[in-house]
Amino acid sequence: MSDPAPFAMPTRFDGGRDRVAVVVPGVGYSPARPLLHFARSVLLQHGWTVQELWWQIPDGFAQFTVDDRIAWVERQVAGAIEAEAGACRLVVGKSLGSLACGITADSNIPAAWLTPVLTNNHVAAALRRTMEPTLLIGGSADKLWDSRIAASLRHDVLEVPLADHGLELVDDAAGSVDVLRQVVSRLDRFIGSLDS
Fold first, then answer.
1. What's the rounded Cα separation, in Å, for the pair 22 and 2?
2. What pLDDT, in 10s, does the model give residues 11-33?
3. Of 36, 54, 89, 133, whose CB has the highest number of CB atoms within 10 Å?
4. Exposed, middle or buried: residue 174 (CB in 10 Å: 0-12, 13-18, 19+)?
5. Distance separating alpha carbons of residues 121 and 67, to the nearest angstrom
6. In the sheet that 48-52 helps form, which strands lie side by side, from edge to edge?
7. Against a cut of 0.90, is the pTM above it?
8. Which DSSP state fits 61?
9. Is the separation of the CB atoms in 124 and 102 below 8 Å?
10. What is the predicted pLDDT for the residue at 3?
11. Does residue 137 belong to any structural domain of this protein?
12. Residue 1 lies in a domain
């Protein structure tokens, strides 16, 4: 039996009606992958409703200009936030999803960004002006993560030594599970801080 198609799986998980978290994927990192799956679990433990965003990357996306990629991601995320009619109180995003951090900054929505693209000037600038609670998690071996930029921001930062863009350790499956545990623990603490 083949895996179910994303459209056959639930994309909304009910918790608190007045608190919705939108979960935003990466290019090839769907909400079903470990980091976002466990982010959803933590959110549900804290009583949040979770709306997962599943997207189909357009053909030719690799040839889009940086500005066109940003605009496309922002349209997807803004649409998901607007669909919640003011109930969206948090965005949790992976990699490509962080191109929408300007949307969360301008909308005063807290965010948790997993492997944000800190090497992108738009992302770095948006994070500099973000005033709401924000968590950044990246790995020192990720070419899209910039340790200096992360350290210069006022946000909560977890940098995992030697972790790659998937927040995994090369040739170390058990170590990668330990990294996942660190990430889930930090997400739990961050999301819990929003409850108070």
1. 27
2. 999 987 789 999 999 999 999 99
3. 36
4. exposed
5. 11
6. 12-13, 48-52, 16-24, 88-94, 111-114, 134-139, 156-160
7. yes
8. G
9. no
10. 46
11. yes
12. no
